[in-house]
# Entry
Amino acid sequence: MADERKSTPSLHEHRVEAASPDVEKQYNLAPYIDADGGDYKARFPNIDEAKVIRKIDIRVVPVLCILYLLAFLDRVNISNAAVFGLKQDLNLGGNEFNTALVVFFVPYVLFEIPSNALLKHFKPHVWLSLCMFLFGLITLLQGFTQNFSGLVATRFFLGVVESGVFPACFYLIAMWYKRAEAQKRYSFFFSSTTLAGGFGGLLASAIGKMDGIRGYRGWRWIFIIEGLVTCLVSAILYFAISDFPEEVTWLTAEEKEFVKARLYEDVGHSKRHDPLTVKSVFEVFKDWKIIVGGFMYFGLIVPAYSYAYFAPSIIQSLGNGMIRTQLLSVPPWACAFALAMITATLSDWLRLRFVFVLIPIAISLAGFVILLVVHDNTHLQYAALFLAAMGTYSAMPIIVCWFNTNLGGHHRRAVGTAFQVGFGNIGGIIAVFAFLAKDAPKYTPGYSICIAFIAVSVLANTVYFLGVSWENRRRDALQAQGAYDGLSHDEKKRMGDLNPDYRYFR
# Structure
């Protein structure tokens, strides 16, 4: 292995000379031509790459989708419970319901980075299945709360145990796929949220009919049944969740080396076993792109959670009954899933990210503007909910994937992803106080806030796009001047995305 890597510089120099001058095409460590026939393939002539990818697709992403579907369902099913009388039974007045929602986000934001740090010490299948069992148990217990204090307590601890799930899953996926093939997988995983939203509405409409069974109201059964299902599934996923490429048992030794080599070509040395220290965390934050990445996600979290938590109430305010409200909440989520997968496929095919962030955001913006200005046409208002959900939930996975996969190595991805998701979820605190009961049914402040934060996301994504484009051109110019000739190929690879040969996706 060492001898092969030592021989690489000459190959690398040859490839640089043959590379296209187009920065768009130089999206990974090696020039564009390596996407079809890189050095790592020559080193493993007996490996069928397509077969290995199919194996990874089957073993990694679907399991994480199930995990996150149940996590998001347990997080937002309180919106379905509210339609079935939670507020009335717990005597929630004023903004107490909003306060119970916001409590979730405090630990959820604070524990993102520590949770990803723990992922390096516990194997993913252990850490994620444990988190899953705990948030299922807490959701179940939420069904037995008797007052505002009990609801706040369960929401707080739900935020604690769910904090590690989303960034850990994104981080884990990034350690399996090259950047050019990641977006479809990320969007499929992220779209678990849209599936959870749709499935939650259908499930709630069915469970709601259990109202009165064994003396429990329908909203209590929503928490009890969904929490119990999550606990049971967590036991199965303990055996199904895959660890990092070098640790799994379902790949041969040669396939493991192949997976590591293809990622090495794309983003450099993973530094999987290097310790994550406080100093290394602060080193990551010296990069301005990390901070901008947080704002890219932060701007869309506000409309995303606003929709997830308040869409049932908005639909009910259009004159629909409890069961019909739950059923009408399903189609917008289904359409959001379809658009997310279409944009992800096109984004991977065209190797573009920024343009496929802007298009869905424009759709989302149109939806919220209609909701802001139209109050006398229920059909148009309902159609606007489709636009809001489709645009928001299609842009978010592209933003996270774009930022995450542009980071190289375990440290930068672990810290960068956790920060983006953690900082971004501060927007959840804003979202839950954007739609207050006193503003119903027009919710003018809420829609205005969503539009403002969509603008924040557009600005941050534009800054990031211009920044990485400038960085690509700067590295091209310095490389042409021979400024990095003193660095060996292996030294460059160990720098991750700070490697002067690295070209960011745009």
